[in-house]
């Protein structure tokens, strides 16, 4: 699915652009996710686990743009990737009323309103599609994410203990949330 370009004003006064990722930005996307994974323990991988090529990333962008059940939105600030989000609409008779969202933002862009703007667009896309439940997960300790999701009406539904094991041996739980539309 394609997201039509939209400009937003950040809390610091800068202009950001929300749009679907493009093939030409595959390398930027790859660099962004590696950097994001190195900035926090709250994402599922470490930077060195991203062993994909630019060509593989281009292929992923192409598939996502043409997928009828996936909408990806990338936030660009000064033509650089600042964040990315995605909503995946479930398929099948029994689960098509649900969708799953994910968001990641580079540390330099935290607390500027990017997460709120992107989540607002994902919720709107879900409503337009007739989705009944939006689901997400976040990692224990990520209070910034928890606050954002609660602000949008998401509520905790369950936890998965010891879901993440960090390099230092620390375990973190995943916390699952849902929002009913």
Helical run tally: 4
- CATH class reads Alpha Beta
Spatial gap, N to C terminus = 21 Å
CATH-wise, what's the superfamily?
A: Gcn5-related N-acetyltransferase (GNAT)
- As a whole number of angstroms, the C-alpha radius of gyration is 16 Å
What would the keywords be for this entry?
181 residues, alpha+beta, 4 helices, 35% strand, Aminopeptidase
Give a verbal description of the structure.
A hairpin with a 5-residue loop joins strand 1 and strand 2 (15-19). The chain is of the alpha+beta class. The chain has helices at residues 26-39, 54-66, 114-129, 143-151; strands spanning 6-9, 15-19, 70-77, 80-89, 98-105, 133-139, 155-165, 171-180. The protein has an 8-stranded mixed beta sheet, with helices on both faces. The chain starts with 5 loop residues before the first strand and ends with a strand. Helix 1 (26-39) crosses helix 2. The protein has one domain (6-132): Gcn5-related N-acetyltransferase (GNAT) (Aminopeptidase), CATH 3.40.630.30. The longest helix is centred in the last third of the chain and has 16 residues, at 114-129.
Task: Produce a short descriptive summary.
This protein is α+β, with helices and mostly antiparallel strands and 181 residues long. It has helices spanning 26-39, 54-66, 114-129, 143-151; strands at 6-9, 15-19, 70-77, 80-89, 98-105, 133-139, 155-165, 171-180. Helix content is 29%, strand content 35%.
